[in-house]
Design goal:
The protein is mostly helical. The protein contains 5 helices and no strands. The protein has one domain.
């Protein structure tokens, strides 16, 4: 009798996918291109969409506040916008790396 017929074709769980991902890759992808690309690598769609919504809201707020701004204020607005996006990338990178560690620790 062939034992291969008893194998299930169940797809891996969310935790198994996360534990199998390389934490450093997810961190790097959330920092370098930013905006949640590491979440795509980890197949964490909810975290990706939350990050995308936050980044879009940040862009929209910057665009709304930057309308009719004088040149000196525009330079400051751009700096604040960049700092916000870098902060978002740093937070998502840390969270992606910590999530991998947490899942691996819980799996034993």
């Amino acid at each position: 009798m062939d034992d291969s017929s008893n194998q299930t074709t169940a797809s891996p769980s969310r935790e198994q996918i996360l534990a199998a991902s390389a934490g450093w890759v997810a961190v790097l992808l959330n920092v370098i291109p930013g905006l949640g690309a590491g979440y795509l690598y980890q197949r964490r769609w909810k975290a990706y969409w939350i990050t995308s919504v936050l980044a879009t809201a940040w862009f929209a707020a910057g665009a709304a506040l930057g309308q009719n701004a004088d040149p000196a204020a525009e330079a400051q607005n751009q700096l604040v916008g960049l700092i916000g996006l870098v902060l978002l990338a740093a937070i998502t990178a840390a969270e992606a790396g910590l999530s991998v560690k947490r899942v691996r620790r819980n799996q034993g």
